[in-house]
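Revision sheet: structure tokens.
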Amino acid sequence: MAEITAAMVMKLRDETGLPMMDCKKALQETNGDFELAKQKARESGKKIMSIRQDRTTEEGRIAAYSTLDPPVGAMIELQVESAPVAKHEDLVALSNDLAKQLAVGPGADKPEDLWKQPAPSRKGMTLEQWKDEIEGKMREVLRLARIVRIDLPAGNYVHHDAKSGVLLVVEGGNDDLAKGVAMHVAAMKPKATNTAELEKSLVEKERAILTEQARKEGKPENIIEKMIEGRMRNFYAEHVLSEQPFVKDEKQTVGKVAAAGGMKLVKFIRWQLGESAGEKPAA
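Predicted:
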């Protein structure tokens, strides 16, 4: 049997990222054939991870990619088991590649379709192969929880902790303005893009509450309706994107800032890490 040196084990570890004992075992089983050992070590790591797929993945990252021209926006949620792995440079790079490939590639209806596509920053490697490599190194499950692509002009913003992200579909404007409004959506969490799109039951409930309050205040019925309309403006300013004070300039509403920049707000999708994958975009 060929001599298995520490240098050989270290080299295999450096190239695969797998534990030292796994690398040494692979070299021993292949009689020192380095390339064969590399393949065997990776297959062993993949086999180990295949039986761990039921593990809970409560940490992770949201990543997004968008452009106004060509018109496209994409967002993904990649879940992992622990916070340190979620912040690892390999996870950051993989999540960004997933979002970019979803946007610039042929698209994907479901996560498994996206995994089979090429990794933009890794020549000759699919996204799934890269995932398997990272799982082998980290010994943690990686799960692509949800994906979305919109073939419309869009801006995006992902919070610095990568736990919330926004795709904002617009008409006109520019990238900086679209990103600024997307950042506002991430921070202020509006429920609708404009007043007409706000859920009717929510509006009716608020009207009923305000009407009852006005009656308790002893206001005459003939002026209650006008009072309600005035008070509803505060309600809309809290829940509707176009009516909210812009975070970068609270003297103006988001709608007015967008209009001044020649931009129409169409709809947004806001994700929070771990939320239901069935969440619907604000239309």
